[in-house]
Every structure is written in C-alpha cells, then in structure tokens.
Amino acid sequence: MGKLVVGATVVCTAAVVCGVAVLLMKRRMKNSGEWGKVEALLKDFEEKCATPVGKLKQVADAMTVEMQAGLASEGGSKLKMLISYVDNLPTGDEKGLFYALDLGGTNFRVMRVQLGGKEKRIVKHEVKEVSIPQNVMAGSSSEVLFDFIATALAEFVATEGDDFHLPPGRQRELGFTFSFPVKQLSIASGTLIKWTKGFSIEDVVGQDVVGELAKAMERAGLDVRVAALVNDTVGTLAGGRYNNPDVIAAVILGTGTNAAYVERAHAIPKWHGLLPKSGEMVINMEWGNFRSSHLPVTEYDQNLDIESLNPGEQIYEKIISGMYLGEILRRVLCRMAEEASLFGDYVPSKLKVPFVLRTPDMSAMHHDESADLKVVGNKLKDILEVPNSTLKMRKIVVELCDIITSRGARLSAAGIVGILKKLGRDTFKDGEKQRSVIAVDGALFEHYTKFRNCLKETMKELLGDAADSTIIELSNDGSGVGAALLAASHSQYTDLEES
Ligand code: GLC
C-alpha cells in the first residue's frame, strides 16, 4: 500500500514536471518568435529615424532656404520669421527694478530683477514658479488664463522686499515673455497667431495678448506697465547678449523648440521701406513649424501628429522637443507590446494612456548606468505597471530612448547649422576669428545630458574646422532676465535715466 502510494506520487510528479517542461518550452519558443518581432520592429524604427551626416546637411540647407523664403514674403514659408521689434540688444547699462513674466510651458514664472548698470550688473534677482492647471491651459477662456496670470503676478509683487528699489512716483514695468507665435505690432503689443505645445484657448487667437494681460491686471488691481512683449527665444538672445557680446542666436529646447537670431535689416525684403537699411533686427523664426521632405518622420510621428491638438503643424517640434519625446517612446513601446508581446502575454493598460511617459522619466531611464537597469525597471513598474520586467525588455527601452533622443538632438544641430549658413558663419575663415555663440535655454537641453552631448557632437560632425569658433552655451533662465532687460531698454523712463 505504502509502495503503491509512493509509486503513484512518483508517476504523478514526473507527469507534472514533464507538463511544466513542455509548457516552458512552448512559451520559450513562442517568446523567441515574438522576440524576433520585437527586434524587427526595433530595427525598422532605427532605420526610419536614421540621421546620417548627408541627411543632416540636407536638413540644414533646407532650413537656410526656408529662412530666406520666410523673410522674402509674408507666408512665404512654413517658417514665420517674425519681426520682434527688438533692434538693439542689451548693452549692460540697464538700471532699475524690472519685472518679467514668462508664459509658455508647463510652468509659468514671475521674476523681479534689480539691475545695477555696467558696474553692478544684476544686483538681486527673485523668481517664483507656478504650475498651470491643465484646465486653464486648454479649453478655458482668455479671461480665465489672464486672470490666473495677473493674480499670481499681483501676489508676487506684494512680496517685494526692501532690497528692490523703485524710485518714488514711478510705475512698475514688466517684460512679458509669451512663448507662442505672435505677430508683433510694436515692441509692446502683438496678436497671437496660433497656440502650440498643448495650449488651446480659442478666444485668445487673434487678440493683442498685452491688451488681454492689461485688462486682467486692472481687474486684479495691479498697476504695472508692459514695456516689452517677447518670445522666449528673443528673451534668451537678449539675456545671452548681456553676458556675452558674441551671442548671435538663441535656441529653446524645452517643452517646445524654436530659435531667434540677429538679422541685418537690409536682408528682410518683406520689411523693405519699413526698417532702416542699416542696423539689425531680431527675428523669431518659429522653427518648430519647419517641415522638409528630408526630415525622418515615422508612422509613430504621423500618428502622434494626427491625434495632437494641432495636426499638420509644428512637425519639427514634434520630433525634437520635450513635450513629445516621451510620447514617441510610449507609442513605439505600445506597438511592440501589442504586436510582439514585448512585456509578455498582456499589453499594460497604462501604455495606452497618451503622454503617460514624460520626457524626464525617459531621460532617467536613458541615463541608467546600473548593470540590471534598475531605474528602467522601476519606471516601468511605477508608470506603466509592468511588475517584473526582464533585463532584455529593459535594454530595448534604453535602445529606443537612444534612437529617439539622438534623432532629436541631431536634427536640432542641423537647424543651428542652417542659421549659421544663413549668416555665412558655417565655414572657417582663415585669419578671421569670428566667434559665434548660440545661447540655449530649456529643460531638455539643460537636464537631458545625452541629448545635450549628442547635439554638441553633431555640431562638430557638421561644421568640421568651424566648430572651434562655434559655441553652444547654456543660458539658464536667460529668457526671464532677457525680458526684464528688454523692458529696461524700452522703459518709459529711459530718457530720464540717461539725462
Ligand atoms: C513653441 C512656440 C514658440 C516657442 C517655443 C519654445 O514652438 O510656438 O513660440 O518659442 O515653443 O518655447
């Protein structure tokens, strides 16, 4: 009887072991088949995102051509090439207390700066950051948005301490950085052409944004004069020039992307007769809307675009900037999970939520140096609810981060080279030590180290010898200080200061 039981148990155990082994084998076979699919999808994506030097040179050339076309006539190019009305950049002589207000990304900032002229420069500087609720950014009204801004500004002004000095009887003045495409009517007024970067509030389009802000400030009981309305690229250029006279252009690589540069006034045909032939003018390119057949656009990008708030627009921005990189990654992972069982037999439901993977999380995964890619594992668990990712899965994620980020960084470098070409600064001129400094601001450039390094390396690849005289410089919060500086140079009291 005992023997019988033991015998039966042995047979039974053997059967179970055998069954499990078959199951495991079947699963392994299935997995290796699926894994082949994962790798095929990866390879295909990598090929479609490729940016060999030849292609980048074509992109740079196309950028130069489009710049020319946008300057030649209104609507002549996807690049708007907007006149900023900034024709004299900061000199260092600016003095006094000025405020700046910066709207354009997920956060908005208020700032006050005490400027001390050539000797003392920036005497004191305070900043407050406020995040913009989603329901204010999209679907609200002009009044809701501007009341939100004016209230935050009023609260900030109320905390002004004794180390800031406003001469008696004077009105406070402000530089307003509004980082969207604006048709400027003067240095301190302009109408919104369209929203970008996930903002969408219908009744602001076509309105003078300074007028809207002024009304809201009045409602908030705040007496502040808007002395300058600037794009963040223009603010960054002004802030950059204040610190370094060789700054000739500014680039934003943050939630969105854009560039501004200093153009010779006579090179702006659409403004002939309106601008003095001598002198310079800062141009806000709105390069985020750049488009060219040379751009490596994949089906993932196309779908992202179709489902976005602004389909068909800002294509360059949608493959480069911080708002979108994480979302591109999510889309590729989702397809790999659906069609090639990347995460096993199920598709994590979180993976289907648009914008759930943010670029800072992607950056953290991309920079994971641990042997078992622990950071990647934790992010997959916390954000996508994938509890037990294998090392193989994690490696795929890192490879995707690399493909997406390199494409964005390399295309940004090509854009900068396009500007240098337009200005005749892309080649090394013997004996002429012409330095070109590009001031760059934005969290993508500042915090995503691999993006930044790749951009800089690509500049070298594209420029050869001329790379030595081209400097890409981080201009941390250049746009806020720049707006305050431009408010100073357009102050209603400038003549009093000079006399
Ligand atoms: C978007 C805006 C542009 C801004 C850029 C960076 O492209 O349209 O005006 O400069 O984002 O913030």
Summarize the structure.
The protein has helices at residues 2-48, 53-72, 117-120, 134-137, 142-157, 209-219, 232-243, 299-306, 315-320, 322-340, 359-366, 374-384, 391-422, 443-447, 449-463, 478-489, 494-498, and strands spanning 82-83, 95-103, 107-116, 122-131, 172-178, 182-186, 189-192, 224-230, 247-253, 257-264, 280-284, 436-441, 470-474. It has 499 residues and is of the alpha/beta class.
Question: Can you give keywords for this protein?
Answer:
499 residues, alpha/beta, Hexokinase, domain 1, Nucleotidyltransferase, domain 5, 2 domains, six-stranded mixed sheet, five-stranded mixed sheet, globular, disordered N terminus, binds alpha-D-glucopyranose, ATP-binding, transmembrane, kinase
CATH topology of the largest domain: Hexokinase, domain 1
Small ligands present = alpha-D-glucopyranose
Q: Fraction of residues in helices? A: 40-55%
Low-confidence stretches: 1-12, 20-30
- What is the number of helical segments per DSSP (H or I, 4+ residues)? 17
Task: Based on Cα principal axes, name the global outline.
Answer: globular
The tally of strands reads 13
So what's the CATH class of the largest domain?
Alpha Beta
Structural class: alpha/beta
**Radius of gyration from the CA trace?**
27 Å
**Largest sheet, order of strands side by side?**
1-11-10-9-12-13
Beta-strand content bin: 15-25%
Q: What's the CATH architecture name of the largest domain?
A: 3-Layer(aba) Sandwich
Question: What summary fits the major beta sheet?
Answer: 6 strands, mixed
Distance between the termini: 116 Å
Indicate how many domains the architecture comprises. Answer: 2
Mean pLDDT: 91
The ordered H/E elements are HHEEEHEHHEEEHEHEEEHHHHHHEHHEHH
EC number: 2.7.1.-
Domain Hexokinase C-terminal: 249-488
Pfam families: Hexokinase_1, Hexokinase_2
Domain Hexokinase N-terminal: 42-242
